Amino acid sequence: MKDRNYTHSIQIDINKCIGCSHCMRVCSTQAIRIVKGHALIQPERCIDCGECYRVCPQRAVYAKDDGLKSAEKSGYKIALVPSVFIGQFSSEYSATQVMDAIKQLGFDDVFEVEQAVDFIKEEYMKLKSDELQRPLISSFCPAVVRLIQVKYPSLTHNIIRLKAPHDIAAIYLRESKKNLVKEDSSIHIYYITPCAAKIVAALSPVGEDKSAIDSTINMTEVYNRISVILIGEKNSGKHKTAANMSPDSVQWSLSGTEKKYYAGRNLAIDGIENVIEFLEKLESGHIKDIDFLEMRACDQGCAGGILCPGNRFLTVERLEQRQKRLENLKSVNRGKVFNSLLDYSEKLHESSGVDPVYPRDGLLLDDDMEKALIKLQRINRLESYLPGFDCGACGAPSCRNLAEDIIKDKATISHCVFVQRIMEKNYKLSPDQAFTVIEKIWGKGRLDKLY
Question: CA–CA distance from 89 to each of 255, 275, 311, 317 (Å)?
Fold first, then answer.
């Protein structure tokens, strides 16, 4: 089989990892194994959802980004900020104050991602063709898009071929700012991200050759820096005087807002396990007659992103309060919204689409379909010999996964501790050989404390 290269933000520091298997047990795509006493990510399966990040007791799992140091480059630097970042701060700080504080970190301009949502809404109005396969699935959450590629390949054609708001915003900024930038300079766009999946979406987008975003910055890093700046600026008088986007746009990344803008029977589902449960039923045909699915990998949508420093429920409350303030501004200006991005709608429409999304080919058992079917039969046969306890002692999350690893020459049947006992009983494996296998999985010296 051909080697496939996959870009990932989620990484494991083996110097901190103790092989506790917490991450392996929560991984929604069974992408993690325990090898030589450390967690190891299988890149073809990982979707960068960050569930492993949440449960690691050693903080060995981290999200690799470009960091604020990447913003030290020369050129015209723009910070692309999602509304959910503003929601990390107490409502005593206005959005204008937060944006101004970000600018003080060395950016020439700061732009809110959700201004692109008004354009997205216009595009949704054009998605009413009966020729489109139902249900249409939102392309907003990159972790969900990759989840479908990995686990539900038959549903890849249901994903809407439309760029996410942060990409639309970046394209607009490049177009609108090019006349303001000197010829010897260039525009650099830095996305302040709430999750690892969006870091990957900027580095290696699905359905695109290249993202309009240059670099990504961990939201927590920016939060810590501007919190210092904001101290003493309470009630500074820095407030918007006009609504620069539709009021409900600020809640687009939260669960339940996006579905309102597509006609028909629509559902909003958040939390990776809930998404998986629903997709299982959808793919098997148990759920029908759905027109649109809004899916978010994190609880409460992006407010629950792994890189958000604040409490997700307080974040939701603050964004609801901000929506009301924007509605008041809109009322003061006779219902007008002054969104400059919409002046570029025609040009944005030309570049807002993406190529079709395909299943992740790295999961194929073999490039030759006939050989792949034979390997699948061998996996099923092997699984029937294994105990079915899914205990994880073999370093794989389930007996099925161990069978797959054996067929891929990444493990042997003796990795199963129960099979080891049978092999020892039948003199096909010595105790020393069995212990060597255990050490290959859990690391040398791991069991010394038992003596």
Answer: 20, 29, 10, 11
**Residue 268 has which token pair?**
């909003």
Give pLDDT < 70 ranges for the chain. Answer: 1-4, 128-132, 182-185, 233-242, 449-451
Q: What is the 3 state secondary structure string of the chain?
A: CCCCCCCCCEEECCCCCCCCCHHHHHCCCCCEEEECCEEEECCCCCCCCCHHHHHCCCCCEEECCCCHHHHHCCCEEEEEECHHHHCCCCCCCCHHHHHHHHHCCCCCEEEEHHHHHHHHHHHHCCCCCCCCCCCEECCCCHHHHHHHHHHCHHHHHHECCECCHHHHHHHHHHHHHCCCCCCCCCEEEEEEECCHHHHHHHHCCCCCCCCCCCEEEEHHHHHHHHHHHHCCCCCCCCCCCCCCCCHHHHHCCCCCCHHHHCCCCEEEEECHHHHHHHHHHHHCCCCCCCCEEEEECCCCHHHHCCCCCCCHHHHHHHHHHHHHHHHHHHHHCCCCCCCHHHHHHHHHHHHCECCCCCCCHHHCCCCCHHHHHHHHHHHHHHHHHCCCCCCCCCCCCCHHHHHHHHHCCCCCHHHCHHHHHHHHHCCCCCHHHHHHHHHHHHCCCCCHHHC
Q: Please report the pLDDT score of residue 448 as a whole number.
A: 73
pLDDT in tens, 80-89: 999 999 999 9
